Amino acid sequence: MRIGGEVVGQVTSGGYGYTVARSIAYAYLPVGVEVGAELDVQVDGTWEGARVAQSPLYDPKGERIRA
After folding, report:
1. pLDDT for 16-60, tens place per residue?
2. Helix (H, G, I), strand (E, B) or coil at 64
């Protein structure tokens, strides 16, 4: 993972979150990176835009899975 072109962290796992309808990557980031910060994640050799989300990502009312 990188912020402003500088590598700052490492993805530990990732996949598609069906209940939140988006890709999810769990990663180690330095202390101080705030929720909402924009960064890049390398996926199959290509850098993709991402945003730091507050954990856990879930759909508490189950609305997306019923759609």
Report:
1. 988 778 899 999 999 999 999 999 999 889 999 999 988 767 767
2. helix
Place of tokens 């856990």: 56
Domains of the chain, each with CATH number or no CATH: 2-66 (2.40.30.110)
Closest of 11, 17, 3 to residue 43, by C-alpha:
11
Listed in order, strand segments (DSSP E) in the chain are: 2-3, 6-7, 10-17, 22-28, 38-43, 46-51
pLDDT of residue 66: 63
Percentage helix, strand, coil for the chain under 3-state DSSP, each rounded to 5 = 5, 45, 50
